Amino acid sequence: MAVPEAVPTTVPPAGNPVIVAIDGPSGTGKSSTSKAVAVRLGLGYLDTGAQYRAMTWWMLENGVDVADQAAVAAAASKPVIVSGTDPRAPTITVDGTDVAAPIRGQAVTAAVSAVSAVPEVRTRVTGLQRTIAAGAGGGIVVEGRDIGTTVLPDADVKIFLTASAEARAARRSAELTGAEAADVAATRAALVRRDAADSGRKTSPLAKAADAIEVDTTELTLDQVVERVAELVDGKRRPR
After folding, report:
1. pTM for this model (two decimals)
2. Which CATH number does the domain 19-233 belong to among 3.40.50.300, 3.40.50.2300, 3.30.450.20, 3.10.20.30?
């Protein structure tokens, strides 16, 4: 889902800096919602999933066997990953190479859960995420799968997005092309497999933080989700 065009282009009056954690499984609208809320409220934006994809892309490009946890762990400190935080044009580079497009390919998608499960990878990437969040003076929206539970447990606002497997599969298929787009059943099966992998990993599993607000996006439009989340965030950041 793309960022709604109805999102205001002007930044509202500055309020208190706020750190927002938005978690949830694939296909719930995390990225679209996070970017739109950040634009609306004049906050930075960080897609943590892109960082894990970037790490996975580097492993594949450099011949690291992603099924070998020891090999992945040994290489985890090598790639230089830099993430831009402009919600209108988020960027990500690895060793100076723009990887925004290649990290969305099927090879990376198939391997990212395995790479992300390696503790050394999570430690490295979590450190990057915390550094970026700490340096966001005006506030930031950080989206992922373990932000509210592990990466930023003291975030000012925690949101956990959910949706039915059917709705998520339909949304993800709409983002694909050709035969992949037509096979919604295969997309649903892939999402369910990734949910199981992400929720079952020993290190920082996908989970809802105890103090997170759950928003079910199954029957909501993107605009409605953005409005709901923006209201929750704005209530925290207004000057008191």
Report:
1. 0.84
2. 3.40.50.300
